[in-house]
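help with this record:
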Amino acid sequence: MDDDSRRTVRFYVGGEHAIESEGMWADETPAGTYLVKNIPFFAYQVSYQDEVAARWCDDGCLWALGVIANSGNVTLRAAATASDRICAEADMARLSGELQDLGIGHEEAAHYHLLAINVSEVDDIWGLIRLLGRFERSGQGIWEESKVMPWWPHLDR
């Protein structure tokens, strides 16, 4: 895709979150839909490489209407819980390194001490679940499922 096809698509977050919306890079397809090029930090029910429909609105923003084709990817989030900024940053850096060692794609929102994690069906799913379980049990942080696919194990969380 060339730079002319790259857009920022906004996704409504709302609810109890302090964030109203999240902007993500997306590439416009010949059909006028968009392929998401970020791992979502705050928006639910969307994953990296999902194809979404979007519409320009009066506010000048391109707003997502919904996913029209799933990429098959799962989105997870992990957040540090340490109240001390230095400790939280260290916990996130450690987790990021361990994710990298597993070959798991992720992006960091350093200001929020938050990692957005992209999981594909070929990744080491059980290794990832064990890693996130240790992260949570150690008191370093919490994690959640944001969007899952049928192949993702039911974890009773």
About this structure: The mean pLDDT is 94. The chain has two domains: 3-69, 74-147. The CA atoms of residues 56 and 79 lie 32 Å apart. The radius of gyration is 16 Å.
